[in-house]
Amino acid sequence: MGDVADKLAYFQAITGLEDTDLCTEILSAHNWDLELAISSITDTDNNRPSSSSAATTRANIEPHGHGAGLVLAPNGNNQPPGIAWKLITLPFSIISGSLGLISGAIGFGMWAASGVLSYSLNMVGIGGAPRSGTTPLLVVSQAASEAVDFVASFERDYGRLRPNFVTEGFMDALQRSRHEYKLMFVYLHSPEHPDTPAFCEGTLCNEMLASFLNENFVAWGGSVKASEGFKMSNSLKASRYPFCAVVMAATNQRIALLQQVEGPRSPEELLTVLQRVLEESSPVLVSARVEAEERRNNLRLREEQDAAYRAALEADQARERQRQEEQERLEREAAEAETKRKEEEEACERAAQEAAEREAALAKMREEKALSLGAEPEKGPDVTQVLVRFPSGERKGRRFHCTAKIQSLYDYVDSLGCLQVNDYSLVSNFPRTVYGRDKLAVSLKEAGLHPQASLFIETK
User: Fold this and answer.
1) How far apart are CA 58 and CA 296, in angstroms?
2) How far is CA 241 from CA 166, 210, 223, 233, 237, in A?
3) Checking DSSP bridges between strand 433-435 and strand 452-459, what pairing results, if any?
4) End-to-end CA distance of the chain
5) Which pLDDT band, with edges at 50, 70 and 90, does 216 fall under?
6) Omega cis (within 30) before 63
7) Which parts of 306-392 are beta strand (E)?
8) What torsion do the CA atoms of 29, 35, 36, 42 make, to the nearest 10 degrees?
9) Is the backbone peptide bond immediately before 431 cis, with ω within 30 degrees of 0?
10) Strand 255-262 and strand 383-389: pairing?
11) Fewer C-beta within 10 Å: the chain N or C terminus?
12) Which H helix or E strand runs over 314?
């Protein structure tokens, strides 16, 4: 954003103002200081009624990536502001810019005075001597400072297992996602909202979700209490928290909103949404990557052709073209092989993860049922001795209170983990009686199994 056109495009993308003349006047009134100009608009926007709800918006992605996405606009009807709004905001913008210049001049004067005083004290030996090897402090923008503070606060409150939020401003993070050919995951943090702690701990800090975000997205987070987080909440029209969105860089410094998720969500729900958005947006990302690679290849090819034209004959140029084509073919085949290998690895990882999850759920169920049985009672007149024979021939026995239900017998069998099936019945031989699922609420004594019983398992 070093020139006037880039600053004007960025200002229009953040504020949603489409009138170029009005935007130019506002920026000129603030000496082309983007932060002051944007602050004057967002501070004024706070007095306007906000929309009741922000609908989830899906960007229409064109096949060749031209203007990919829906451009953000803080005003609800996407109409340019009227002449009355121009007349109202322009004086305030000029006053705000003037105050900013005065404040900056005062701050610079205080900084210069403190530097002179420090130098004078050092000269007379009062001030501390400069330490050797120290490096000068780097100037950090307000947006980057807020990002660093947010990441530190989030990690302090919820631990290190989290999305890797970048410690830079929103537009810098957006440019990073453009250069890495990834989508950008945006999280607006409302510390005072009652759903925020549970969402951060249970969803954002979920290992599977965090890993997926870190691998496939550039993650940026901001607190709505901070300047840039507040501005982005207005631009994205956040009406409910926790608030997440997926955006990508569009043309002319604009932002394409692909998906927004408002309110608490489970890790699985949010992961499903992100996977869908990633799948739908992958053609655009792949196209952008291919186009960039083609531009680099074309530039290199032109340079090689120019050098060959000046230095060699037509035969040398033909051999160079042949070599280039062969190199591109090999790179394409290598890329296809690498893609296939990654897909196979991901499929294996997913299968292993699903198997582990099923085994963990089964182990948890067994443990819960074993705990529900309680301690095994001692022998007595009110205690029933039950012997269960499994299809493998193995026998297991346990004592139960005679008032225990048939359900307790099924829980006992399930807790042992000896069966590979879930659909089975407990049956007695003499007389043959099936204690099916319809008798789960019957006590052992009522079922005629007291004081002792021998049962076998009949699978279906």
Assistant:
1) 31
2) 21, 19, 11, 10, 11
3) unpaired
4) 71
5) very high
6) no
7) 383-389
8) 110
9) yes
10) unpaired
11) C
12) helix 314-373
Instruction: Specify the DSSP element, H or E, that contains 336.
Output: helix 314-373
For residues 236 and 402, what is the distance between their CA atoms, to the nearest angstrom?
A: 64
The angle subtended at Cα 165 by Cα 163 and Cα 168, nearest 5°, is 175
Q: For residue 139, how many C-alpha atoms fall within 13 Å in the half-sphere facing its CB? A: 0
Coil, helix or strand for 231?
helix
Q: Which amino acid is at 370?
A: A
Which pair of structure tokens corresponds to residue 133?
């090897």
Interhelix angle 314-373/406-416, nearest 10 degrees: 140
175 vs 218: CA distance, rounded Å: 10
Residue 63, both tokens: 């096949």
pLDDT at 137 over 50: no
Q: What is the DSSP letter of 402?
A: T
Sign for the pseudo-dihedral over CA of 157, 161, 167, 169: negative
Residue type, 11: F
Listing DSSP states for 237-272 in one string gives T--SSSEEEEEEE-STT-EEEEEEEES---HHHHHH
Question: What distance in Å separates the CA atoms of residue 71 and residue 19, rounded to the nearest whole number?
Answer: 15
Residue 386, pLDDT score: 92
Query: Among all chains, which residue has been given the structure tokens 């109202």?
Result: 88
Residue 52 to residue 54: CA distance in whole angstroms: 7
Within 8 A by CB and 6+ apart from 16, the residues are: 72, 73, 74, 75, 78, 235
Do the Cβ atoms of 460 and 423 come closer than 8 Å?
yes
**Percent of the residues in the chain that have a pLDDT greater than 70, as a whole number:** 77
Measured CA distances, 413 to 118, 296, 372, 399, 457 (Å): 81, 66, 13, 13, 9
Residues 6+ apart with CB under 8 A from 455: 386, 387, 388, 389, 409, 426, 427, 428, 435, 449
Distance CA 378, CA 145 (A): 67
Tokens of 173: 């993070």
- Total count of residues recorded for the chain: 460
pLDDT digits (tens, 9 = 90+) for 84-130: 434 444 444 444 445 445 555 555 556 556 555 555 555 544 444 44
Q: Which residue is associated with the tokens 């199994």? A: 449
Q: How far apart are CA 292 and CA 350, in angstroms?
A: 32
Alpha helices in 159-193 (DSSP H): 170-180
Q: Which residue has the tokens 């160079």?
A: 320
What is the spatial distance between Cα 280 and Cα 60, in angstroms, rounded to a whole number? 10
What is the model's pLDDT at position 54? Answer: 35
- What are the distances in angstroms from CA 65 to CA 257, 289, 332, 366? 14, 11, 22, 52
